[in-house]
Amino acid sequence: MADPTAALPLWSVLVLPLLLISAAWVAVAFDAALTARARGGRTEVAAAVLLPARETARLLVGQRRRTLAPDRTLTTTGVVLLPIAALLAAAVLPLGARPVADLSVGVVWFNAMEVLAWAAVWAAGWGANSMLSLVGGYRFVAQGLAYELPHMFALITAALAAESLRVPDIVAAQADLWFVVLMPVAFLAYLVSTAAMAFWGPFDAPVGRDVAGGAALELCGIDRLLFVGGRWLLLVVAAAMAVPLFLGGGAGPLLPAPAWVALKTLAVLALLVWLRRRLPTVRMDRFAEFAWVVLIPLTIAQALVVAIVVLQRGGGM
Amino acid sequence: MDLTRLLLRAGAARPHVLLLPVPGGTSVRLAVEAELARRGWPLAQSPADADVLVVAGRPGPRLSEIVEAVWHRLPAPRARIELTDPADVGLQLDAAAAVLANTARQRARQHHDVGPVSHHAHEEHGEHGGHEGHGDMGPVAGLPMADLGEDRDGLTLDRVHVPLGPLLPDWPPGLVVRVTLQGDVVQEAEAEVVDGPAAGEVDVWAGRAAARELDALARFLGVAGWDDAADRARRLRDDLLSGAPDERHATQVRTLVRRVRRSRALRWLLRGLAAGDTDVGALLERRLAAVERAVRGPDTPPSPPPDLAGLARALVGADLATLRLIVAALDPDTEIAPARVPHG
Questions:
Q1: Residue B160 · residue B130 · CB < 8 Å
Q2: Does residue A203 carry a pLDDT above 80?
Q3: Which one, A11, A32, B25, B320, has the greatest CB density within 10 A?
Q4: Cα–Cα–Cα angle for B141, B146, B151, nearest 5°?
């Protein structure tokens, strides 16, 4: 039998995008059903399930319109980068016990790929040469200053407890106790920062309604498909990463590991989708204040506590 | 070639609708919003995201120009309808969807009008800005550069002149606010209504104060990004308009008001946002109180809407996100407002 912690075979590279798209499909349908219910219109399950297909068809035949004096290279870079960043970040996700790419620095890789989204949204916002679109792009830059540090501290606390940056090692370290119990603050900080990273509500100011869609304002046709689709993929990957980091990965009774990973991912995703509708959009200045005054000290304290626990049980040097 | 036809038909099953309300067209706007909610068709936030352009009301000469410019920015496949009678809404939306699914028609259209939008087409609808301040620098690609001016601390900073409206989500019909921005802070503001309604127009809100207040509240919650509460307010408004208000409705409205008032998140976000001599939180509370008053009885007179000069005054010193909240909170009634008032 092969080493159970080695990477998955090469063909899994092709399966990974399909899995992510399926999860995104479920999330879009769930979001559509919630929206329809709140509006009081028809809440047909079939309509919600078909929605991603309809939207995709609509954007595939949509014309790519240009604004005046755009920076096409920048727009295209931003728009294409978003789904690619999500896919690359997903490479280190264990789909069951093993990831597609088993990197010794998996957590760092994941974070590095996520940061690409920062550049992508700014580039898409700038490229259109449109005022409100530019505002949206810069809002995301400001948002990054607020969420990125708590995000890194949350990631590194999980790695610290496992004494490894390899994602399967982090899963293995949770055999006795899930990290969500050991480090609840880090888990919450991860959820908050990960929603902000996917500019998902309540952190959707970069594509907010008050700026008529912000960074996405001028995108149409295939550009919009890549941007909006990329954002959904990013959200899925962010939710999926919570599973190996905090929720014990594929551990669970009866069902095989991949089923548990899928179930836990969908549960986190459902929580994020549901929360979006329940909360108003967080203003940039307030979020920055909250992140620096509350989140960062809390995550540092959490890391300290975990470090002491690790030393207590005789880990480290 | 029937992949295109298939895709067109799939897309036309749920088109995104860009609603451009005209002053005096409120009854049509309400009918369109209710019908879209019933069908589950989404409202587009910008022309790039839209398939159908719906003009609610009869636009005057200046708004007609804006409608043309907006239409030019819709990507194909696209359709356009102008509605003046609330009774036509359903039929016309069906017709628009049929145009979208019509392969031959969409192909023929895609051939003419490609290429970038002209400079002229960008003016007057908030999603493009900075075309008015003519500084010393020459134009770049037909657009003038930002000019310089003193800011509140006496520093000389870039300033950009931006018209906001009349096409923005949850924005009063026909309102255009011209602002001078330094960074994202408003230095000067000037508000006007483009093509206000002719005298003697019927007031659709007469005797429906509760629905009027809920409509304004829904706009505010929409701008604040609280989708669930905004949808709820819109739904209650539509219920009130379609039937006689009974006790159950009144209870639901009160529940919504309580929910908004108690929201800790909203209070935290609005805390300390100045709006002229008051703040956004106080303006919201005034709106919530007005909703409660209107629900209690139809006899209470509606609170008088602010004038445009007061609006412009309240915007100076705000940033862009706050500006949107202030406009939504004050909710100037552009259907009765007089013409242009500057404030600097």
A1: yes
A2: yes
A3: B25
A4: 175
> Can you give the pLDDT at residue B130?
38
| Chain A contact probe: residue of B14, B16, B132, B280 with most A CBs at under 10 A | B14
Could you tell me if B177 and B341 are in contact, meaning their C-beta atoms sit under 8 angstroms apart?
no
Residues ≥6 apart with Cβ < 8 Å to A48: A29, A30, A32, A33, A36
**Beta bridge partners of residue B279, listed in sequence order:** B274
pLDDT tens-digit profile of A24-45?
999 999 998 888 888 776 667 8
Give the class (CATH, top level) of B2-111.
alpha beta
Q: Any idea where the domains of chain A sit in the sequence?
A: 12-312
Rounded distance between C-alpha atoms, residue B325 and residue A210, angstroms: 8
Measured between CB atoms, which of A57, A60, A67 is closest to B117?
A67
Q: Rounded distance, CA B186 to CA B324, Å?
A: 12
**Helix, strand, coil fractions of chain B, as percent rounded to 5:** 45, 15, 35
Contact between residue B216 and residue B325 where contact means Cβ atoms under 8 Å apart: no
Query: Could you say which of A41, A68, A208 has the minimum Cβ distance to residue B119?
Result: A68
- State the ipTM, two decimals: 0.90
User: Could you identify the residue written with the tokens 């919530």?
Assistant: B288
Closest residue in A to B163 (Cα) is A131
Pick the residue from chain A with its C-alpha nearest to B74.
A65
Q: pLDDT category, B51, cuts 50, 70, 90?
A: very high
CB proximity under 8 Å: A 104-143 to B:
130-133, 135
Q: Do A58 and B76 touch (CB under 8 A)?
A: no
pLDDT tens readout for residues B62-83: 999 999 999 988 988 899 999 9
> What part of A 254-283 touches B (C-beta under 8 Å)?
276-283
Supply angle C-alpha B57, B38, B87, rounded to 5: 35
Structure tokens belonging to residue A66:
């240009």
What digits encode the pLDDT tens for the residues A258-307?
Answer: 999 999 999 999 999 999 989 999 988 899 999 999 999 999 999 999 99
Global pTM reads: 0.89
Nearest to B187 by CA among B198, B175, B179, B195: B179
Terminal-to-terminal C-alpha distance of chain A: 33
